[in-house]
Amino acid sequence: MFKILDKRIKTIGYTITALIAFAANSVLCRMALKDNAIDASSFTAIRLLSGVVMFLILLSFNSPVSNGSNGRQRKTWISALLLFIYAIALSFAYISLETGTGALVLFGTVQITMITMGVISGHRLRLFELLGMTVSFGGLAYLVYPTMTTPSFSGFMLMVVSGAAWGMYTVIGRGSTNPLQDNALNFKYTMPLVLVLVLTTLPMLSLSLEGVVYAVLSGAFASALGYTVWYIALRGLSATEAAVVQLSVPVIASIGGILFVSEPISTRLVIACTLVLGGILIVVLSNKRR
């Protein structure tokens, strides 16, 4: 009984930590690209490279990364490709999308992708799971509605691609036995793609110290550490729980604005938080009953 409770508490802690990292990632990406502090290609390249450097530091205190069997290498290449697609599509999408619109499209796509993959693999959605996901998504839509604008078609499609890639990356991560090494390999295997990206977009590179700092913070901390913690959290989450809890990321970002930027607490935020967290609770309780 106590072991199960302890495991659940740890899962909650890892999940909250990872979601805070996701929120930080979105904020850092939007801040860097909105003010043209850096171009999308450079932001993505520095972000992924910073992640590799962070893993080298972490693994210097741990066992070295092994490429493993051919089967594991194929899986790693797939994960690395999904990670790269998610990162580059997100960066270019945020050039033309507002934060609220981008969040709704991104996390809506993540949820749909993970649910679809779960159904394909044989998971049957229960009524209360559907109800909880609907309530949470409704809360997210209510939160971002005032800042939503009609998205450009290219920005919308890029964010859909980014969300689908992240959803698949998360599903693959649910089978991770060594989150630190698996994510380290995933980041490492993106480097050939990063090199091609830099060479292809070399004439369009635009850097500033501020933009580079945002990219490094996003890659080394919010991505490398955040994704590793997320893989650990996934061990204790069902596929449906993993999909729905990510809808809380924009809410966490809004709460961060209140705590660190002295933004006012609005009635809309309180209602949205209640809906999002209430929907997540419905899903969690539904899975607990199962």
Write structural notes for this entry.
Helices cover 79% and strands 0% of the residues. With 290 residues, the protein is mainly alpha-helical. The longest helix has 33 residues. The model has no long low-confidence stretch (mean pLDDT 88).
The oligomerization state is: single chain
Number of strands: 0
Portion in helices:
over 70%
What structural class results from the helix and strand content?
A: mainly alpha
Distance between the termini: 17 Å
Largest sheet: none
Give Rg in angstroms: 18 Å
Looking at the structure, what is the overall shape?
globular
Q: Return the string of H and E elements.
A: HHHHHHHHHHHH
Residue share in β-strands: under 5%
Q: Which consecutive residue ranges, at least 5 long each, have pLDDT under 50?
A: none
SS summary, helix count:
12
The overall pLDDT, averaged over residues, is: 88
What descriptors fit this protein?
79% helix, single chain, mainly alpha, globular, 290 residues
Write the layout of secondary structure elements.
Blueprint: H1 2-34, H2 40-59, H3 70-96, H4 99-120, H5 127-144, H6 153-173, H7 179-188, H8 191-200, H9 209-234, H10 239-245, H11 249-260, H12 267-289
Helix pairs in contact: 1-3, 1-9, 1-11, 2-3, 2-7, 2-8, 2-9, 3-6, 3-7, 4-5, 4-6, 4-10, 5-12, 7-9, 10-12
